[in-house]
């Protein structure tokens, strides 16, 4: 079979509720890599966390992180970042609405309020284990002083979905950044014109693999562009309903080996 390029989201797609990759998925991916197919994780996580999870899958798996802001091609890292103007606008807007902000470098999470439970230091499966994982941002001046280190961000606010939708419109109308969402309780803050699909296109161009041979797996709306850029788009059984409308295929859930099951059927 012709060489394929396969991309998979991590949370809600590759890993289960306990942040584990099933042995069956690892076995299937390993076998397909040995046959010459290329695999990437494609996630909103910061690069170090995404890299760690990619290597838990297989040593040959490469990385798209920060919703396309950071990606690797042949071990070379490519990066785009939120502009200073975007960061200033985000900070001012979120301060007015008293919403918590989280910004990501390659290895560090910068935050303005209390960290959510799944970003706490004891959840090493998501954040890695560097001593410099977290830095508190106490002012706009502090944020701008480290702006060159920030590639993307996220706003998380449980039970404030209506307000988040209002804020999303404000951010989008600024034309300073791209905005997506991986869950109803968040806004993904991404450099303008960047998403998982822009990174996929760069990888695709380098490997010279046609779109018809690109497979992608996702579960959230920040996976939409990735699925649209793929000839074979697959929504997980646990994906949000809106994403399923845009997928050509729906597989089993992330706790039912959805990725492995689809790949076995497709390549058999």
From TrEMBL:
Keywords: Hydrolase
CDD domains to which the protein is assigned, alphabetical: HAD_Pase
Domain of life, source organism: Bacteria
Key word Cell cycle present: no
GO molecular function, one term: magnesium ion binding
One GO cellular component, as annotated: cytosol
NCBIfam families: Cof-subfamily, HAD-SF-IIB
Name of this chain's protein: HAD family hydrolase
Originating organism: Enterococcus avium (Streptococcus avium)
């Amino acid at each position: 079979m012709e060489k394929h390029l396969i991309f998979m989201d991590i949370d809600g797609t590759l890993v289960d509720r306990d942040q584990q990759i099933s042995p069956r998925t690892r076995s299937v991916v390993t076998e397909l890599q040995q046959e010459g197919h290329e695999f990437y994780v494609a996630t909103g996580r910061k690069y170090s966390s995404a890299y760690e999870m990619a290597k838990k899958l297989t040593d040959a798996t490469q990385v798209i992180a920060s919703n396309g802001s950071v990606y690797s091609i042949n071990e070379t890292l490519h990066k785009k970042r939120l502009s200073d103007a975007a960061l200033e606008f985000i900070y001012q807007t979120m301060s007015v609405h008293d919403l918590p902000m989280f910004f990501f470098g390659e290895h560090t999470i910068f935050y303005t309020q209390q960290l959510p439970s799944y970003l706490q230091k004891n959840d090493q499966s998501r954040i890695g284990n560097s001593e410099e994982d977290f830095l508190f941002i106490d002012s706009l001046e502090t944020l701008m002083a480290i702006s060159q280190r920030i590639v993307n961000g996220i706003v998380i606010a449980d039970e404030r979905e209506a307000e988040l939708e209002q804020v999303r419109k404000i951010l989008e109308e600024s034309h300073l950044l791209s905005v997506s969402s991986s869950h109803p309780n968040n806004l993904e803050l991404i450099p303008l014109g960047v998403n998982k699909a822009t990174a996929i296109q760069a990888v695709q161009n380098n490997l010279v693999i046609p779109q018809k041979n690109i497979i992608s797996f996702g579960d959230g709306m920040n996976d939409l562009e990735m699925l649209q850029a793929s000839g074979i788009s697959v929504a997980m059984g646990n994906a949000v309903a809106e994403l399923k409308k845009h997928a050509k295929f729906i597989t089993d859930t992330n706790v039912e080996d959805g990725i492995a099951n689809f790949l076995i059927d497709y390549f058999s």
